[in-house]
Design a protein that fits this description.
Blueprint: H1 19-22, H2 27-33, E1 58-59, H3 73-76, H4 91-95, E2 106-111, E3 117-120, H5 121-128, E4 131-138, E5 143-153, H6 154-161, E6 169-174, E7 194-198, H7 199-202, E8 208-213, E9 216-217, E10 227-229, E11 242-248, H8 255-259, E12 283-286, E13 295-297, H9 305-308
Parallel strand pairs: 1-4, 2-11, 5-12
Antiparallel strand pairs: 2-3, 4-5, 5-8, 6-7, 6-11, 8-9, 8-10, 12-13
């Protein structure tokens, strides 16, 4: 007789929330139900910037954000989803700056590559250079920002690893340090956080690795010192504080997809025609837009349809959400 052992995140039938109530709950509430609430540290905090090289850099004129209004720096750095450091939007700014050190930092390139290596982040920046790009940012929770990111194309980093012909996907892994990250003291998520892209997505000119914002090193709460930025996808694909990038043959399971596969897919492309099971994706709230700005319609692929739609021409986007 086969006896199935439930995973730690699975709810017993008796604990299932009625559908009507469930649909009213936010993603943060959903996590709290699963026990991811974390107590704050008792030490005082101060803002910390990762010591990355390459500043000051220059804006890439091809990505100058014409027609976009950047979200103020204080909002970009204080309204964050970084569950390793708490569930509330203002938790990461506090909890990620209580002595957590992101300088020095080593990135590992591994898997199906000809040039596996471990490299210091500052040395990496000096090798690849920096540029600034202004991108739209759309969260799966239906809010949005415009962020001037500083960093380098992900394709440059992938080329440095020199993928083998058998490599089809890219797996990203963040740090694991429960002594510093209060959220990681819970076992409700399968830490460390993992994300993935198809290799052709990773090589797309828009895919970017950020080391800064607004011409300054990336603050801890924004994912210092290395953060993935894929502007046509929902923000949870933008894994923060990356320690390892691995080329693989098979599609990696990303953390949110493992936790709730009916709500978070592997692709996570911004798509106003495919709603989240608990809320609409047709429109978005603009962070910093003021109380009278209302909502704005969400654009297909977050406004980058012309650039990235060919990547998915043979893919059913409703099935592969």
């Amino acid at each position: 007789m086969l006896i199935r052992t439930p995973s730690s995140w699975e709810l017993p039938e008796s604990a299932v929330t009625p559908e009507a109530l469930y649909r009213q709950r936010s993603r943060r509430d959903f996590l709290r139900t699963l026990g991811l609430g974390a107590a704050a540290l008792t030490l005082g905090s101060r803002s910390v910037l990762a010591a990355t090289a390459g500043f000051p850099d220059q804006q890439n004129p091809a990505y100058n954000g014409t027609g976009l209004k950047p979200t103020p720096y204080n909002l970009v750095t204080s309204y964050n989803n970084f569950y390793e450091f708490g569930l509330n939007k203002d938790d990461p700014k506090d909890n990620a700056n209580r002595g957590w050190n992101t300088d020095a930092w080593t990135l590992e390139l591994a898997g199906l590559v000809r040039s596996p290596q471990k490299i210091d982040v500052n040395a990496l920046v000096r090798q690849l250079g920096l540029e600034q790009r202004v991108y739209r940012h759309r969260c799966v929770e239906a809010w949005s920002m415009v962020v001037p990111w500083d960093g380098f194309p992900l394709a440059k980093l992938i080329a440095l690893a020199d993928p083998l012909p058998t490599a089809k996907y890219v797996k990203f892994t963040t740090f694991y340090d429960p002594s510093a990250a209060v959220g990681q003291r819970s076992n409700s998520l399968d830490w460390p956080y993992v994300e993935g892209l198809r290799l052709d997505e990773a090589m797309h000119p828009l895919a970017f690795i950020a080391t800064g914002i607004y011409g300054k090193p990336l603050p801890n709460q924004n994912g210092a010192p290395l953060r993935l930025v894929v502007p046509w996808k929902y923000g949870f694909k933008g894994i923060k504080s990356i320690v390892k990038i691995e080329l693989t043959k098979r599609e990696p399971r990303n953390t949110w997809n493992v936790m709730a596969p009916s709500e978070y897919g592997f692709y996570a492309n911004v798509n106003p025609t495919v709603d989240h099971p608990r809320w609409s994706q047709a429109s978005e709230r603009i962070i910093g837009g003021g109380i009278f700005s209302g909502r704005q319609p969400t654009l297909m692929f977050n406004g980058y349809e012309k650039e990235v739609a060919p990547l998915y021409k043979d893919l059913n986007l409703r099935v592969n959400f």
